[in-house]
Write a structure and sequence with these properties.
620 residues; alpha+beta; Glutamine Phosphoribosylpyrophosphate, subunit 1, domain 1; Rossmann fold; 4 domains; seven-stranded antiparallel sheet; 26 helices; globular
Amino acid sequence: MAGLYAIIGDRDSSYLKVAAKQLQFFDEEIQIVNEHGFGCSWVSQNNLELFAPALDLQTGVRVICGGRIAWDEPEWQKATKLDRYEGGLSNRLLLDNYLRSGVAGIEKSLNGAAVVLIWDPRNQQVHLLTDRFGYYPVFLYQPEQVNNCVIASFPDAIADDPATETSWDYVSMAEFLWQGKATPPHTYYQEIKYAGVATHCQWDLQQQTFQRREYWQPFQAGFFANLSQAAEQLTAAVSHSIYIRTLPRLQPTVSYTSGGLDSRVILFASAERDRLSGLNLYDTPNQESAAAQQLCQQAGVEYIGFPRDEDYYPRWLHLGAKYSGGMWSAFDNHFLGTREVVCGKLAANTVLSACSTDFLFKFANLERRSAKFLGQHLPWMTFGSKWNGGFIDPPMSYNHALPPMYGESIRQRLHEWFGDVPVYFRNDLERLQVEDKRNRPMCYAAGLSFPLLFNCFPYDTFMADIAIAECYSQTPVKWKLNASLWSLVSARIGGEGIVDANYGWRPGASKSEQLLKAAINKVKRLQSPPPSNAEGLATQGSWPNMGWYVLHSPTVRQIWETTKASDRQLITDLLGRDPWQVPAEHWADRFNTRCFFNILTLLSHQAGRASSKLDNKEAY
């Protein structure tokens, strides 16, 4: 695993050593700092020469980074000459910027999915800054108390510290079962909260004060004048972001690759394609894997197919719940089982994906409905006029009522997070503001698995780039709904030769082309009835039929049938009904399977937490 664990105030080094072990699941490097007023454990699988914490011996100022900052090659070369500092090149640059420009220098430099932690002994201050989209997870324990405040990338590690006192937050657990995520800033522990997105936190040990402010917000500088301008600027931002994240010093690189419009941009914008591998997951080779292979061949990138076995997701359920802290569903645990190949056989120094494109530049977090003409469905979406009252993707809360024991608390949290949103949208800015509250922080995104990726891989995401954040801030909502903007960007970077495997038309296709292709696809479906094993595991897309596991996986059956009575009662209370009284066929239905896997995730997490704190107390 990877991450950081910092304590403000004085604490014995043994606490930091045990915390480091809590964050080390594989063979990551560990560095521990313990000075008067500040201590930190840093655990990472990133290249130490590039990303290790930095120290200025003259002032004693330290910079510790969780995640990665991306730099242009001239900046990396500049860092090699900053020999007055110790540590990794990236953090030397951050340290130099801080000493020259203060916190403002860090805000301008935080170009990536990362948190930056600064210890400045000159004025006895600690600074924490989070990235603009909140990709990298970081949580706080009792920040207002200053002394003995804990800053950590993993809530369970804080809860396991014998010096902390935590209690379960059952409202967050109920939210996870109901909507696939806890409402930020909450966690499974009442005393541990998310630090904030695009946020600067400051602790002053001399004054015993804590301050917090947002240093960036979207939608403040107006919007793109036209689609052509937006496509030009976003194409440039995406291309440059990928390029600087695939420089020779950061390779070998592995990119999770599908046949859609998103991941292909990594293949074609990479700095050196001969040291890039496109990894495609499937159950059996299908149209998605065929498109991914074609894309790799056209880009001159090594294609690697990764066939999943018939118990892939259930087999990785327990470790996935452990490594993600149980707040992200096993339903989305696509990548943990590839770690041996990615970090072992391929020896990747950088792992990339395009996971959040659907959220930031498409319609995943927008109210929408299928467009119709004369009662017939068209291959596009149109805006929904009414706010659903909470989050959208994945759309779980539509399927069952709020649990009676926790429903009012959930409503209150949603109101606190979203504020006073009108029932019916009055303008496009309101749509964007609601979408933004669903998007950020990305480390909470349901349907994605960023915390697990950061914890288990040398992971980075090109979407965390500052220039892309500025494009996000200036993109009108109308160009997101049917991927109008992103389709043009994908076509400009990756070309139009290979169709989108999800829809069958080429990137940048006109509406008339899309309509014609949709009609052709419909005729083909009518002429070719589905195979007899249509309810099997494999699909034509990237992900399997998850309901198949409910009915056929011995691992799932064993977990479900051997759950303790106390855990059954907990899940029943959190869900508002007894899921064990429902036939398996109900949970195998595609509208219910995600909720089922959320239950399995929470059960696995609770089982792993049962003796964890007791074990840690014995370590001291």
